[in-house]
Every structure is written in C-alpha cells, then in structure tokens.
Design goal:
alpha+beta; 4-stranded mixed β-sheet; 5 helices
Length: about 120
C-alpha cells in the first residue's frame, strides 16, 4: 500500500495516523517532492475509476491561474488535465491510497481509509 501525501495537509496526517493505528504496512510518497509522472497519474486514475478533473483541486491558486475551471471535461481534454496534474502536483487531491488489491481511494475520510485497509 502506498499513500500520496502532503505533510502540511490535515486530512493526510489523519489518514497516516489511522494507518499507523491499524498497523498497516504502507509507503509514504510526498508527492510534492516525488512528483508522479503522467503515466503514474493515469495508472492511479484507472485504479480510482476516476477522471483527472475528479481529483483536481480546482480551488488552488495554480488552478485559477491555469483556468482549469473552464477546461472541457471530456476524453479529448484528458491528457491536458493529466499534464496539468503532473506539472502542478499541488493540484492533485490528497491523500490518495493505493490498496494492495490494485484499487485506490482518495482517503479524505476515515471511512475511505478504512475501505483501503479492507482491500
């Protein structure tokens, strides 16, 4: 199991605390320092069953500068979104937990983290 975190994020810290409390075996990836490639983002999206716009933090200043709110949310624009996430990792929703069964969850709630633990 791997968890993508920003240590400054309270949701990330809560998720890590819960993983620790449950004795989970996991690896921490500080994704702002160890930026995921476009291919890694595609793989995580597949595991999540989501599209790139579903995991984009559109309220971030960088998102506003890029104008992502106005970008089309369709297959033709998918690579543009993925490129923005790889180029501006702060825009990636967090934490993302990749479960041992090949799936992933956005672990913003205790229930989501427990879901990842149960897989």
């Amino acid at each position: 199991m791997e968890i993508w975190i920003n240590p400054a994020c309270s949701k990330c810290r809560s998720a890590v605390s819960l993983l620790d409390a449950e004795g989970a075996d996991y690896t921490v990836r500080r994704y702002l320092e160890d930026v995921p490639s476009e291919d890694e983002i595609r793989e995580v999206l597949t595991r999540l069953g989501l599209e790139p716009w579903d995991i984009t933090r559109t309220g971030e200043a960088e998102a506003k500068e890029l104008g992502v709110e106005d970008w089309p949310r369709d297959e033709a624009s998918r690579d543009r979104w993925i490129g923005a996430l790889a180029g501006h990792p702060k825009l990636i929703q967090r934490p993302i937990i990749t479960a041992d069964d090949g799936t992933a969850v956005v672990g913003r709630s205790e229930e989501a983290v427990r879901d990842a633990l149960s897989r």
